[in-house]
Design a protein that fits this description.
single chain; alpha+beta; Uridine Diphospho-n-acetylenolpyruvylglucosamine Reductase, domain 3; 2 domains; three-stranded antiparallel β-sheet; 11 strands; 29% helix; globular; binds flavin-adenine dinucleotide; binds 2-acetamido-2-deoxy-beta-D-glucopyranose
């Protein structure tokens, strides 16, 4: 559970928790770009881990979290920075079926070459006292003229759509977030499950309106297409396309911290219902994205038995007394 507002994201947690970005389809998780870690082991010894020195530790650090030492330097492989085309549009909930089908179709196309990313979210807004769909369409190669978003763009918008070209620094400049979230859940790319998520969101909103009043909260429920990579995450099991689903509520009135547990319970219960539904139709996925996981989740345990054993073996080798709680 995160208190609101939570602000700027640190490099350490992002790189140790994998790191997804608009560039993920082309360049993988942020941790996939790390070529060398300098870390302080529990013994106090300062070591490097990379592809040739301590390659076992190097592999374990790619998604294995902060269980082996304190990383004092990350050496990253870089790629040329291009400006991003960022398109935003808001769409009425009556078009949710068409948007979900468009998200599923987008997820099934390989976007790596074209540099596209799509983030769609359902949000309840206290100002309009209604939910809407908010879509962010990104091209990381600064191309404004691609056709990848046509199926989403065929839906009428609530306000004129905007498109701008931003530097990476500009686009990353507004990431403060005040949110209480539960999850995340990974599902196979299955429109039935996304529709169920949308229905469950509406019942969460009704529930929160009754508990808090219509102006005291907003919500966010994201669908994030997910790529795989050469790391500890075990995303090759099975190699299907995935949607990372994250749900949260934001309390918008001051001094509402005493409401956090009650609201968190409601969001967590919704996430459980979604997981149960996804399981019942065979579209639940074991993977728990670590950088989004709350305390109730076991992201490392979700990587598959072989990877979990590797993490345990490496922890035993480099931290024999169990100083770090692996
Ligand atoms: C506003 C916001 C936007 C976000 N956007 C994204 C996003 O676009 N993509 C994404 O993937 N995630 C995103 N996240 C999630 C984010 O990646 C995680 O919250 C991440 O853990 C933040 O890292 P931190 O170093 O700031 O956090 P911290 O809480 O400081 O660290 C997280 C964990 O890592 C450990 N740790 C940190 N640094 C080190 C180190 N050097 N050595 C060893 N252990 C260390 C800490 O002990 C802690 O257990 C977002 C979060 C927020 C709040
Ligand atoms: C890997 O670590 C070794 C040992 O510290 C070091 O000599 C070498 O330069 C490192 N390689 C990279 C790519 O950082
Ligand atoms: C998009 O524009 C680029 C030049 O900026 C051009 O090379 C490309 O063919 C165009 N693509 C489409 C789909 O129109
Ligand atoms: C980020 O936002 C702040 C405050 O709005 C502004 O002063 C700063 O110039 C912005 N930085 C970039 C790189 O856009």
């Amino acid at each position: 559970m995160k208190e609101n507002p939570v602000g700027v994201v640190g490099v350490g947690g992002l790189l140790l928790g994998d790191g997804v970005s608009w560039h993920t389809a082309r360049t993988g998780f942020a941790c996939d770009s790390v070529v060398d870690y300098e870390l302080v082991l529990a013994s106090g010894e300062i070591v490097h881990a990379n592809a040739t020195a301590r390659s076992d530790l190097f592999r374990a650090l790619k998604g294995g979290g902060s269980n082996f030492g304190i990383v004092t330097s990350f050496h990253l492989e870089t790629f040329p920075a291009t400006d991003l085309v960022v398109g935003r549009r808001s769409i009425g909930m009556e078009h949710i079926d068409a948007v979900i089908d468009a998200v599923a179709a987008f997820t099934d196309l390989d976007q790596a070459y074209h540099g596209n990313a799509l983030l769609s979210a359902i949000q309840y807004r206290p100002d309009t006292e209604a939910s809407m769909i908010s879509v962010t369409e990104i091209n990381t190669l600064n191309r404004a003229n691609n056709t990848a978003f046509d199926a989403v763009n065929r839906n009428p918008t609530l306000a004129p759509a905007t498109t701008e070209s931003l530097t990476l620094a500009q686009s990353a400049n507004s990431s403060a977030l005040g949110v209480l979230y539960a999850g995340p859940v990974t599902i196979a790319n299955d429109p039935r499950v996304m529709r169920y998520c949308a229905e469950q969101h509406e019942s969460l909103v009704e529930d929160l309106k009754a508990a808090l009043g219509t102006k005291a909260f907003s919500t966010i429920l994201d669908f994030q297409p997910l790529a795989s990579g050469a790391n500890m995450l075990g995303l090759e099991r099975p190699p299907h396309n995935r949607i990372l689903f994250v749900a949260g509520a934001i309390l918008t009135t001051p001094n509402s911290a005493d409401r956090f547990p009650q609201v968190y319970q409601k969001v967590a219960a919704m996430v459980q219902r979604i997981e149960a539904f996804a399981t019942s139709v065979g579209s639940h996925d074991e993977f728990v994205y670590p950088a989004y996981a709350d305390a109730a989740r076991d992201p490392l345990g979700s990587y598959g038995a072989v990877n979990v054993q590797h993490i345990r073996d490496v922890a035993k080798r480099y931290d024999p007394d169990g100083f770090f709680p692996a």
